[in-house]
Amino acid sequence: MRVLGIAGSPRQGGNTDILLKRFLEGAAESGAETVMLRACDLKISGCLHCDNCLETGRCSVDDDMQKVYPELEAAEGIVIASPLHFMGISGQLKLLIDRCQALWARKYVLKIPPLGDTRERKGFFISVGGRKAVPNLFDGELSTIKSLFKSTDVSYIGSILVPEIDAMREIEKYPQQLEQAYDSGKHFAAGY
User: Fold this and answer.
1) Would you state the pLDDT for residue 120?
2) I need a labelling partner for 156 at 20 to 30 A (CA). Which of 3, 73, 141, 173 fits?
3) Helices 101-108, 65-74: inter-axial angle, 10-degree rounding
4) Which of 131, 12, 17, 134 lies closest to 80 in space, CA to CA?
């Protein structure tokens, strides 16, 4: 199994990066090949809404997103991590997801597999938010992530959502969360 990790945090080595790396380590322990992309390291512009993808299934913008599409297609598992920013995902990750409009067009307009074939794929989400735990804290993020997965025929398997963590590397003080990420990665790659 090939597992693609997409780090959405603009802060390299931050809390979501740490949890994502633990998840990928667990997946590797179960025999998965793992790859990680950092959204903030990619030069991705916003969707231009030019509608080229509605006719071709391809995005007309030639930037680093052209490196992301093949990674999405090659993956059997996709795990996305983002800190909570104003009740949603990070801006860097949102640019990447918005550019998946071409994949949406493949599925819903052109009626072809959005990721090039009909292999079963599964997805997972990791987020950390500095706010106190309140009802629906992560709903904005989950709505975006679940929409992406549905549009790309990726089955949403689950998530790790951690409130009240904000300081750089603070998650390292919570070994149970690190273990949860590792175990989730193992189960994700091994199958539920």
Assistant:
1) 96
2) 173
3) 50
4) 17
Say how far apart CA 14 and CA 166 lie, in whole Å.
9
For 51-81, the pLDDT digits (tens) are 999 999 999 999 999 999 999 999 999 999 9
Residues with Cβ within 8 Å of residue 133, at least 6 apart in sequence: 163, 164
Token pair listed for 17: 């990066």
Identify whether the C-beta of residue 157 lies closer than 8 Å to the C-beta of residue 188.
yes
Nearest alpha carbon to residue 94 among 23, 27, 45: 45
Looking up tokens 């990726």 gives 154
Low-confidence ranges of the chain (pLDDT < 70): 192
DSSP output for 8-41: --SSTTSHHHHHHHHHHHHHHHTT-EEEEEEGGG
Element (H, E) at 172: none
What are the helix (H) ranges across 32-169?
Answer: 52-56, 65-74, 91-98, 101-108, 139-151
Integer CA distances (angstroms), 61 to 66, 74, 93, 178, in order: 8, 21, 17, 38
What would the two tokens of residue 21 be?
């790396």
